[in-house]
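Notes, p. 3: input format for complexes.
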Amino acid sequence: MPANRVAYRTCPLCEATCGLEIHLDDDEITLIRGDKEDVFSRGFLCPKGTALKGLEADPDRLRKPQVRRGDTWHSVSWDDAFAEVERGLQAVIDTYGRDAIGVYMGNPSAHNLAGMVYNRVLNRGIGTANVFSASTVDQMPKHVSAGLMFGTAISIPLADVDRTDYLLILGANPFVSNGSLLTAPDMPGRLRALRARGGRFVVVDPRRTKTAEEADEHLAIRPGTDAHFLFGIVNTLINEGLVSLGLAEGLVEGFDEVVRLAAHFPPETVQNICGIEADTIRRVARDLAGVERAAVYGRIGTCTQEFGTISSWLVDVVNTLSGNLDREGGAMFARPAIGGPTAEDTGTGRGFRIGRRESRVRGLPEALGELPVATMVDEMETPGDGQIRALVCIAGNPVLSTPDSGRLDRALAELDFMVALDIYRNETTRHANVILPAPRVLAKSHYDLALYNLAIRTVANYSPPIVELGPDELSEWETMCRLTAVVTGQGSSQAAGEVVDDFVLSTLVQSAVKREGGIVEGRDADELTEALSMNGRRGPERVLDFMLRTGPYGDGFDAPGHEGGLSLAVLEENPHGVDLGPMEPRLPGVLRTPSGKIELAPTELIADTEDRLLPSLERPLGGLVLVGRRDLRSNNSWMHNVEVLVKGKPRCTLHVHPDDASRLGLVDGLLARVRSAAGELEAPVEVTDAIRPGVVSLPHGWGHVAEDIVMATASRYAGVNSNALTDGSVVDALSGNAILNGIPVDVEALVPLDA
Ligand SMILES: Nc1nc2c(c(=O)[nH]1)N[C@H]1C(S)=C(S)[C@@H](COP(=O)(O)OP(=O)(O)OC[C@H]3O[C@@H](n4cnc5c(=O)[nH]c(N)nc54)[C@H](O)[C@@H]3O)O[C@H]1N2
Ligand SMILES: Nc1nc2c(c(=O)[nH]1)N[C@H]1C(S)=C(S)[C@@H](COP(=O)(O)OP(=O)(O)OC[C@H]3O[C@@H](n4cnc5c(=O)[nH]c(N)nc54)[C@H](O)[C@@H]3O)O[C@H]1N2
Ligand code: SF4
Ligand SMILES: [Mo]
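Output follows (755 residues plus molybdenum atom):
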């Protein structure tokens, strides 16, 4: 590679997909800044984007496969590592069967081309019922509500931030998180632009976040009561005659059921529960219906809570009833360049189903082929047929990121075998027998297969590897293919991995040429495969090229009428990306419900409302509750080993309102003991009026205290693990999602003031 060069790539660290301009001297990064020519991010980036430099240089990042023998770790060759994995997993399969292998897939998988293409293949290959992922500590409620209403798990309406006049944001802090289930780089800039053009945005959050500070209005809701608040809005829309369906007119099923349920939630009733005055609820409803273009957007705070699926559903009920569904500047559907289940305008489908099977121990529902991660530990601890004895952990740190994590930490230590694909030996991977290291970011290619499903513009941007793999490195996709080969009994050699890769591509190509009305219907599969494999290309690039070319903007492999369409070659010529414009109205073609209608009142949600939400109206208001928060310089659990991101004032503190602090005798900077039904911890107090009285907050992803982790910097800024307090024994009933916000806690000063 030439010395002193500049390369461009999409940042893989969060959902914003910013373009980075990376200056290198040979293979070392000398400078990272925002790529001003990036078609989507236009030069924006956050501190994590530049910290990629520190991540690449981190001496603790694993470079070679690691094998643990007893308490000692050894660097071994890839062949030896795979042989060890083969022995370990095969022994478990032979003795206990395939369900004895658990799989956990963490968040970086969704930001990773290799993960997006091969995770599913690996899962199928393992053939276990026990598949878990970070989705059930995150967005599963939204997949479920969108699936039931519109037909697929990715039929998620996206707030058209760039064109709206009024945005209601619940339980999200995009000034810090940079947006989630809403890919829009530079959310701060986009929200400021919204105000600059005369629009407004309102934030509903128990904390006065950075986003709330910049908003026109902040409503400090009581945690876990968004469903009540949103039903209050629905009630107002109905009772004041403000319902207008707009583009959804004639397409809505179940309106009467919504009317019936909403009657239980007049603003006067819900105001005491959510702590937002009836007049305010009515005003928000009138604004949503009154302005030309409005949208409601809910995220972590509305998903990872007691009524996660109901809240996620009501967000889109309000979008629909206020006439903003599918309207420019409202809540719209994407049509990603790589195609997918909603790309074509068919207008009906098989619909979305949940609970097709249940978890063995607690009978919790399956969703999207997964089981709730809150019950993973039960499946490890509880003896019997199907007990998890081994774990395949891909890019995940569940010991810090999932509820009741102390128990999981102990259960992992008891497994017969564990293999992790990761970049660190951390709280989770320290329990592995084998850690297979993913290579440095710059040695990977990148395309946001997942996130462009949720982008407010149709964008396609491919980043080739910028540096070559080192002699001891293996690409992540090859590792995944070789793991798949292992679990399907094909051995673990490179050649066996290539067989898996060829199989993945041929399955895709075969089904595409057979699909009626498809862009390559009737074409010769071998010919297409050959075109995709030009110049020795294989791996995720081939699959991506195939998806782009057969997608809605593709060249269809030179199909007539599609000349000049997208292909990987076109993206390679456009290092700053290709912009295909803003979202366009897609109703009714985007729908995949069997009825071909928007299911405004899915039976599952009616039942959940009647079974759980209505009774909650009678419940006495509880005491102190815990919520989470995110920090601009953090990324879940795994970027705390980069000094520039952790230095300075400690950030893993317990936010407490001054009223609560004085009532409980808590002093800024001193330790408090926090107890919940699940556990307890000690954290330093930070007194702040930026939190609602009765609510305390701790960030997640900290607690780097285990002695055998290899993260020297993170260990120095250890913090505490908030998931020692979250309770895995309760979940959001429909989606099985964990409840990570609104946790009842007791807080006491550790050193009483009078001591
Ligand atoms: N209390 C509480 N808990 C939460 C949340 C909350 O708000 N509150 N948020 C939840 C959410 S939204 C999420 S998404 C989850 C995240 O949960 P997880 O995905 O389990 O945790 P992460 O911290 O993202 O850990 C990612 C892992 O991937 C590794 N890694 C990083 N880059 C790569 C790579 O390129 N390849 C591979 N193979 N590995 C890599 C890291 O070293 C780390 O071990 O946490 C959840 N937990
Ligand atoms: N800097 C940074 N960026 C990130 C991440 C990170 O760790 N750090 N993680 C990434 C990931 S994996 C994700 S999923 C996204 C998440 O993106 P966001 O959803 O924007 O994330 P949070 O900042 O956790 O915002 C959730 C907000 O919900 C509030 N909240 C808590 N309980 C309730 C409630 O009951 N009701 C309401 N209305 N609000 C409530 C919290 O106070 C918090 O401000 O961020 C991504 N981006
Ligand atoms: S906002 Fe997200 S995508 Fe953009 S630079 Fe920061 S971490 Fe990367
Ligand atoms: Mo997440």
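The longest strand covers residues 680-687.
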